[in-house]
Amino acid sequence: MTNVNRFRCKICGYIYSPLRGEPHNGIPAGTEFEDLPETYICPICGMEGKGKIGKWGFEEWVPTRYICSVCGYVYDKVRGEPHRGIKAGTAFEDLPDDYICPVCRIDPKINLEFGKVTKAGFEPLMV
Ligand SMILES: [Zn+2]
Ligand SMILES: [Zn+2]
Predict the structure, then answer these.
(1) Which of 22, 39, 62, 122 is 20 to 30 A from 75, comparing alpha carbons?
(2) Separation of 57 CA from ligand 1 center, angstroms?
């Protein structure tokens, strides 16, 4: 997983992710925040009439929590998983590649339906 530069609107908390872009606003996925047009306006603030919150209203944002897209388990960097030998403060990116969701792992129904849920099955928690 390469590093992704996400940015968060300081006003409303909206997170711009280059992985996602804003296809509905004509910004294709893969567009880095730095490459957004100068006329860019936060889609949430813009829609709610909070004014033209442009790129200046954003700050870089690094997710510390990731959620399993299958079971909803949240990996929290602050907490780690000490009982599994993952020290508190370990970033999700630094987890071993064979990391498997601890909740899915012990759920026979999920195992049957989804197999092993690895890091690829997690998404950053955008709150
Ligand atoms: Zn906003
Ligand atoms: Zn899971």
Answers:
(1) 22
(2) 8
Q: Pick the closest to residue 122 from 47, 82, 68 (CA basis).
A: 68
pLDDT in tens, 85-101: 999 999 999 999 999 99
Q: Are residues 53 and 18 in the same domain?
A: yes
Determine the average pLDDT of the residues in 101-120. 94
Among the bound ligands, the one closest to the CA of 117: 2
Centre of ligand 2 to C-alpha 4, Å, is: 22
Ligand sitting nearest the alpha carbon of 72: 2
Q: What is the mean pLDDT of the chain?
A: 93
Q: How far apart are CA 113 and CA 120, in angstroms?
A: 16
Is residue 99 located within the same domain as residue 119? yes
Residue 1 resides in a domain: no
